[in-house]
TrEMBL record:
Pfam families: DUF3187. It comes from the Bacteria. The lineage of its organism: Bacteria, Pseudomonadati, Pseudomonadota, Gammaproteobacteria, Vibrionales. It comes from Vibrio algivorus. Residues 1-21 form the signal peptide. Keywords: Signal. This is DUF3187 family protein.
Length: 327
């Protein structure tokens, strides 16, 4: 059974529990805020990227543990390069509130190239919606292939290679809070060490981040984040990275009731490279749509990510399944 089939089986199993659920709200119901999804754009994903945050503070001593898995299909056929492969990641961590206005997030990310069989699903999705597949139908499915069109250099059959092996520390302070809105400021440290394979690298990156949350009503909630990242420009030999990038996101959550909510996010990231004629230097745009099933003290989240506008600088399609629990 493929990772996608596992994810769908788990999701539908959890949804079936609602048939036997009562309409009463759990006594310890928790709002988990925006999704914790990570970018799947190939170059930004290899370094420190933006994660949308809830600016509201938590009660002192609150602890959240979380884990999520993502499968992605990367397809890009630009003027200078071709990239056609799958990437998969596991992100686990915890968030702790040492005070009412402070939060600390420590998490680990492992991303690797592995065959998740998404090409068939992506092709069907594009056909169903009448979307341009940008030449995907012209090549075989399930490839692991990267080519620099200018130099002729190719990288093939790298299935199983590690892409990220990273630790991330994020510390945040809520600087303003009312019943309906909050503002927070955070900072992140990121260390990535891939020991071997085609993507072996070592990098240390830093970021500052501003977050704002606004509750229009109890059911309609908005979150936005902006960060400024200092990149390790020696970490990737294939491209000339920008030393600094600015990225932003806006997220919306609608709570149908204490059990069900839907979430939508739009993420924008500055181009990762200096080459003004290369698609990798252009802004990437990732719309994300998700569903959350709340168990009161915990939540299961399922989301998918597409790329729009600039089709050759982000993953073609991604699916994420996550679990979060508060103590």
């Amino acid at each position: 059974m493929s990772p996608l089939q596992h994810s769908m089986l788990i999701l539908f199993g959890l949804l079936s529990l609602q048939v036997h659920a009562t309409n009463s709200a759990p006594d310890n119901y928790t709002d988990f805020g925006p999704l914790l999804t990570l970018t799947q754009a190939p170059i930004p994903a290899m370094g420190l990227s933006l994660k949308t945050r809830d600016a509201f503070g938590w009660e002192k001593g609150t602890l959240e543990v979380y884990g999520q898995g993502t499968v992605s299909s990367v397809w890009a056929d630009g003027a200078d390069y071709i990239a056609d492969y799958y990437q998969n990641d596991v992100n686990i961590g915890f968030i702790y509130a040492p005070a009412d206005d402070w939060k600390i997030d420590v998490n680990y990310l492992y991303r690797f190239a592995g065959n998740n069989k998404l090409d068939g699903l992506v092709n069907g999705f594009h056909d169903a919606l009448g979307l341009d597949d940008n030449g995907r139908h012209d090549v075989d499915n399930d490839r692991f292939y990267i080519k620099n069109k200018k130099t002729g250099t190719t990288l093939e059959d790298f299935q199983g290679d590690t892409l990220n092996n990273a630790l991330n520390l994020y510390v945040e302070k809520t600087v303003f809070e009312t019943k309906r809105q909050a503002l927070s400021l955070g900072g992140a440290l990121y260390y990535n060490k891939v020991f071997n394979g085609n993507f072996a690298q070592s990098s240390f990156e830093q970021a500052i981040q501003l977050n704002y949350a606004f509750y229009l009503t109890d059911a309609n909630r908005f979150y936005t984040s902006v960060n400024f990242v200092h990149h390790d420009t020696d970490s990737i030999d294939l491209v000339n990275l920008r030393e600094f990038t600015t990225n932003g996101s806006i997220s919306y959550q609608y709570l149908f009731n204490e059990r069900h909510s839907i979430l939508a996010e739009f993420r924008m990231q500055q181009g990762a490279t200096h080459n003004d004629e290369n698609e990798l230097s252009m802004v990437s745009f990732e719309p994300i749509v998700g569903y959350r099933y709340s168990l009161g003290f915990a939540a299961v989240e399922f989301s998918f990510t597409e790329n729009v506008i600039n089709s050759d600088n982000s993953a073609d399609f991604s699916l994420t399944l996550g679990y979060r629990q508060r103590f």
